[in-house]
């Protein structure tokens, strides 16, 4: 595998990407409707123009964990954290190596596998 093809594959593994209309790839970004509106946390220096990020951050201070596991008492502050946790019960391994049969529950494990075995 050449350096340029390695760089491209590695980039695909570590970034969330989506195809654009023109066929190019770009990072997925949160849209900011009003960049001049900054949401400032009253408890710490955190600030963001994205209201959904601000609401997620506020849960750090409130202790709110609205997402409950259907299999055990685990609760999470974010839906993505619950999805990752539920994989411990279901055995789901959604991250698959393109070069061998390795599968993983975490994207970071797939990235580490790729760097060790297919570099």
Automatic annotation (TrEMBL):
Family annotation (SMART domains): ZnF_C2H2
Recorded GO CC terms: nucleus
Domain C2H2-type, chain residue ranges per copy: 39-66, 67-94, 95-119
Keywords carried by this UniProt record: DNA-binding, Metal-binding, Nucleus, Repeat, Transcription, Transcription regulation, Zinc, Zinc-finger
Family matches, as Pfam families: zf-C2H2 (PF00096)
Gene3D superfamilies, per the entry: Classic Zinc Finger
An example Gene Ontology molecular-function term: zinc ion binding
Main subcellular location of this protein, as a coarse class: nucleus
Location relative to the cell: Nucleus
InterPro entries hit by this protein: Snail/Krueppel_Znf (IPR050527), Znf_C2H2_sf (IPR036236), Znf_C2H2_type (IPR013087)
Record-stated family: Belongs to the snail C2H2-type zinc-finger protein family.
Designated name of the protein: Zinc finger protein 513
Gene source species: Portunus trituberculatus
């Amino acid at each position: 595998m050449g350096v340029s093809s390695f760089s491209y594959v590695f980039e695909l593994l570590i970034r969330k990407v989506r195809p654009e209309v023109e066929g190019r790839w770009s990072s997925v970004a949160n849209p900011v409707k009003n960049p001049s509106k900054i949401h400032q946390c009253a408890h710490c220096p955190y600030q963001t123009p994205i209201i959904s990020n601000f609401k997620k951050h506020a849960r750090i201070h409130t202790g709110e964990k609205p997402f409950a596991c259907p299999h055990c008492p685990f609760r999470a502050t974010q839906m993505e954290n619950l999805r990752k946790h539920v994989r411990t019960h279901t055995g789901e391994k959604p991250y698959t190596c393109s070069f061998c049969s390795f599968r993983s529950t975490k994207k970071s494990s797939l990235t580490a596998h790729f760097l060790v075995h297919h570099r």
